Amino acid sequence: MPGQLDTLWTFALSFPGAFEDHPWEETPVVKVGKKVFVFFGTPDNPGISVKLPESAEQARAVPDAAPMGYGLGRHGWVYVPVSRSTPVELLQDWIEESYRAIATKKLVRELDER
């Protein structure tokens, strides 16, 4: 994953209990426990999909962002394209928000204690 996607991938894997998975061969994800907290796009279609209980509306304001399909959008999941115009720090904030929404309280406490 070149550039920003690589930076975001490394960031997502830095959370307590986070690990890489490929449940659908072409779509890499990062999970905590048995649950995905960030879906990654591909170099041809760079983007992330994250669960944003607080920031979904803000994320949907990014050009070409959209609620995720398969009914996930109803639950705060948003696809956000990764481009030079969207600051990597903002994307990292959304990855962290998604992690906090998915991870156990114990793991969130561990993150807060860092």
Descriptive notes:
The protein is of the alpha+beta class. The protein has one domain: Aspartate Aminotransferase, domain 1, CATH 3.90.1150.30. 34% of the residues lie in helices and 31% in strands. It has four helices and six strands, in the order αββββαββαα. The protein has a six-stranded antiparallel sheet. Strand 1 (18-24) and strand 2 form a beta hairpin. The chain is globular. The N and C termini lie far apart (27 Å). 29% of the residues are buried.
Essential attributes:
6 strands, 114 residues, alpha+beta, Aspartate Aminotransferase, domain 1, 34% helix, single chain, six-stranded antiparallel sheet, globular
Q: What topology emerges from the helices and strands here?
A:
Elements: H1 3-13, E1 18-24, E2 27-32, E3 35-42, E4 45-51, H2 56-60, E5 66-67, E6 77-81, H3 88-102, H4 105-112
Antiparallel strand pairs: 1-2, 2-3, 3-4, 4-6, 5-6
Helix pairs in contact: 1-3
Report the mean per-residue pLDDT as an integer.
89
Shape: globular
Q: Order of SSEs, N→C?
A: HEEEEHEEHH
Q: Write down the CATH topology.
A: Aspartate Aminotransferase, domain 1
CATH architecture name: Alpha-Beta Complex
Main pleated-sheet profile? 6 strands, antiparallel
Number of strands: 6
Percent helix, as a range, is 25-40%
Distance between the termini: 27 Å
Number of helices: 4
Structural class estimated from helices and strands = alpha+beta
Major β-sheet strand ordering: 1-2-3-4-6-5
Portion in strands: 25-35%
